[in-house]
Amino acid sequence: METIGDVDTFAHASRAPFLYLHGVPTDADDWLPFLERTGGHAPDLPGFGRSGKPPHFDYSIPGYARWLREYVDRAGLDRFSLVVHDWGAVGLALAQELPGRIERLVLIDAVPFLPGYTWHRAARLWRTPLVGELAMGLTFKRTMRGNGVPDELVDRAYSRFDHGTQRAILKLYRSAGPDVLEAAGARLGSIDAPALVVWGEDDPYLPAEFAHTYAERLGGKARVELIEGAGHWPWLGRPAVIDTVTAFLLGP
């Protein structure tokens, strides 16, 4: 554990210049099969996994961007490749602040910092005061499965789904209406690093059309890989996705 931005932070970390950012409701262990091939950094974001979950933390896009800035500076990541999934998209706020430090970029079913996205049903519940708290209180393993969390992830996600994580999720979603999401991606064109956009065609939360929109908005050359029959975590049970991502990261 290391304290980053007043948060006790757990991270898988090696000296390799790769930064992997997980989404909701999981943690850095999502990235273990990728880290085995590339090394790098995969922190549990504040509010998730084994990291601290303080009530005073700013669980918003700017709040996570500030925390990530301190993380990469402390880790000595002067230039690095960035891989984000779901709400790991908060890393895009950092990338727009520091585009010259991004070597390569991989987006995997990332929350759209783009116009035209409206939240999925579960997120709309979480964004509603009292209703969201009730929904969190009624979340069990079976309801996680019913909301689309794959069996491979349910046990781990639920074991770390404590009050602190529930609070972080509610605050994060309530901080991010459609206008906030669109504004958060206003400078995507400043990121001119080579990019790979990977998306499960059957993602029930984030429609695959946003893969192409992301590729169009980024400032560098971007390749889109749509994974037929895959959902929100497209690498699960599909080693070819891990091959594709790590080959891109390690390639010339």
Protein architecture, described:
There is one protein chain. This protein has a single domain (2-250), classed as Alpha/Beta hydrolase fold, catalytic domain (Rossmann fold). The chain is built from 11 helices and 9 strands. It has helices spanning 32-38, 61-74, 90-97, 121-126, 131-137, 141-146, 151-159, 163-174, 178-184, 209-217, 239-250; strands at 2-4, 7-9, 11-13, 18-21, 41-43, 80-86, 102-110, 195-200, 222-227. The strands form 3 sheets. A 5-stranded parallel beta sheet has the order 4-6-7-8-9, with helices on both faces. Strands 1-2 form a two-stranded antiparallel ribbon. A two-stranded antiparallel sheet has the order 3-5. The radius of gyration is 17 Å and the shape is globular.
Shape: globular
Runs in which pLDDT lies below 50 for 5 or more consecutive residues are: none
**What CATH architecture would you give?**
3-Layer(aba) Sandwich
The level 1 CATH classification is: Alpha Beta
